[in-house]
Amino acid sequence: MNAPERESTEMHPQPVIRTEGLSKRYGSTLALDGLDLTVGEGEVYGYLGPNGSGKTTTIRLLLGLHRPSGGRAELFGLDAWSDPVAAHRRVAYVAGEPFLWPSLTGAETLEFLARLHGGTDISYRDLLVERFQLETRKKIRALSKGNRQKVQLIAALATRAELLLLDEPTSGLDPLMEVAFRDCVKEAKERAQTVFLSSHILSEVEALCDRVGILRDGKLVDEGTLAELRHLAVQTVEVTFAGQAPELRPLPGVQVQSAGPNALRFEVSGSVGPLIAELSGHPVATLSSREPSLEEIFLHHYDGSDGRAER
Amino acid sequence: MDLRPASALARRAFRDARVRTVSYALLFVALSYAQLVAYRDAYPTLSSRLAFARSFADNKAVRLFYGEPHDLLSVSGYAAWRIGGTLAIFAAIFGLLAAVRALRTEEDTGRMELVLAGVVGRRAAYLSAMAAIAAGILILYFAELVGLIAGGLPVGGSAYLALATVSVVPVFVGVGAVASQLSPTRRMALELGGAVAGLMFLLRVIADTASGLGWVRWATPLGWAEELRPFTGARPLVLVLPAAATVLLLVLAARIAAGRDIGTGVLPARDSAEPRLGMLSSPTAQALRSERGSLVVWLSGVGAFAYILGVIAKSSSSAGISKNLNRELGKLGSGSIVTPTGYLGFTFIFFVLAVSLFACAQIGAARHEEADQQLETLLALPVSRRGWLGGRLLLAACAAAAISLVAGLLTWVGAESGGVAISLGKLVEAGANCLPVALLFLGLAALAYATAPRASAGIAYALVTVAFLWNLLGSLLGAPKWLVEVTPFAHVGLVPAQPFRAGAALIMLGIAAASALAATWVFERRDLTGS
Fold first, then answer.
1. Is the separation of the CB atoms in A113 and A99 below 8 Å?
2. Which one of A97, A115, A152 has the shortest CB-CB distance to B281?
3. Alpha-carbon dihedral A141, A142, A145, A151, rounded to 10 degrees
4. A17-26: strand order across its sheet
5. Residue B168: is its pLDDT beyond 70?
6. HSE-CB of B237 using CA atoms within 13 angstroms
7. Which uninterrupted H or E stretch holds B203?
8. What pLDDT is attached to residue A93?
9. Does the beta carbon of A245 lie under 8 angstroms from any beta carbon of chain B?
10. pLDDT, mean of residues B327-331
């Protein structure tokens, strides 16, 4: 992006990704239901959801591969369905499944994808090949899934595109390569690239993302920074007493469990103030409180739900 | 031993092949029945049959397609020659495809690995694949039998003729099974098996057309089917040959399969290569790069066939042919086929068919790229749908043009060396004459691809096959003229015997262009569809 453009976007910040009431129906299945999403420039956005919740559908709609049944999707202010090519010059995409050409070698594939995209940084690509330890002389059909995934990742990262659309990019990668991937995303963030990371690997999202959206059955059920999500979610407070644990008055939004002969565990949604006030009249020995992990927040949204349609 | 897993596997394989099996069965019924009705209708009297027989007795050119006739005076003798000869070729293709699909494709896709990780062993997996194919063969057998009996042939003779035709299938199942063991990929297995089938066909052609080389017939399963001599002095003992060959090939395949790693072939797969960076500048260039192998096969196959046709064109002779018979032969859709020029005009309609089928195959390849989701990778890049499809169509059209011209050119080379005086220009024109129909089917196939992607290859091949058979049989079956002329093949001028029909060609090109545009319009508006 050149300088004057950046100036104008700062004055009227235009989101990199914007959807309005975006819906997609496949036959009788509603895969995506009125999605409103905004991702700003330079943001690393984590898109969370289990299999079949509509993550890949969202990305296909953003890329104009599938046509919205309702609403609209925009990349850089360009309509995703009617003007895909112009948008794709500024986007690099990594699919969850690496669909490449079996008879081409890794090097040939990288070259092909680079020529089609234009603007690939060759020296950065060579660095990535080294970093991901890709054997480029091998044909795609002889590569394992993880290695094919590396080919895709290298091709996408080397374009240094303004927007990286990553759909479960680390599926099939070993832990060492996952570390390499995280480094690459951090570098992209430093270069002010926008990253849309669809994933169900919570630690990855927790480590990389500024903002997180949680998808359930095609609907965005929660969205915000990690701090915001934590604030809204349940906190765990564990208390040990000098002597036997007392009987406490029931408090709204607080659930009590026994955690041993003289200990209690409290699950608090909202403020912990009333609980502290209540405890002050009792002989508290130790008190520990823990912020909920992203996993707990995530599971909280999926409590008791299963059996969603695969899409 | 628990047979349930193996039988579940066999049923699965049978279901996978159901579309192919049913299509071939329909072809077997239709062709058997229609040929019989057509022959009775066209040659009702003994004298007309005599004249017909005489015209073919020496016509090596026609034998090339159908084999050596033994008796053309009776309906059954005609059936044995014409139906047996044609269907034997389809039987060979069926056997080859069935075996490669059930064995190599399963390994190529990794499904076999999944199966063998379960309770089914190698031997049981192999046997259940074979059982599924055997069921398919049985269906083909009864399809032909029904067609023959419905066409009025006696039950016993029909049963034997159908047996002779279908005896070709298991041998080529064996060929496909061995090819599947040797080749590390599906594509290579098909090419290897296809090369063997082509060679077997070539041997039959040589045996049936070259004087003094009749013994070559014993070297090819297609020849054995002839030597079984249905209706003309049956020799059931010959069945020992296909039976022995089948057992030999299948046992060989099983032994190779038992001794190798799953997912590999005996021939090494080249898994690494120095990068070659040519032809990667656009999706179209890359498509040409990946299709060039099959393009070379098409060009050399059509070229070799054209050359042989050219060489034997001279043997078409007009001696002893009455005007009346010539008119009857005209009903076969061939005009006069008893002069070299007339004969070449007649045979070029088969090139029109071949190039049209090539066009379908190209659309099939495009669909493959979408079904395997590489298209998704492409369209997520700055590649437009219009550009991708347009490039594919342009590539197919250019390749079809190249094949057409090679057909014309090599027929001329063959005719020259065979001593037939015919101008190069005329035969290049005959080649170019293949294009309008092929492009028409390319356009229609593209439209099918855009509107019904999953069914598109089937629709395209069915359209071409039905249109072609309808041209051959429609008039013989006494259909009204307007109905016969629905098929584009009826509007092809039989160059070089007849003049090029520019008007019809223009209309076909017009429809082709309109279909291609409509296809692009629809394709730009639909979701990408996986397999």
1. no
2. A115
3. -80
4. A29-39, A17-26, A70-75, A78-79
5. yes
6. 2
7. helix B186-209
8. 96
9. no
10. 53
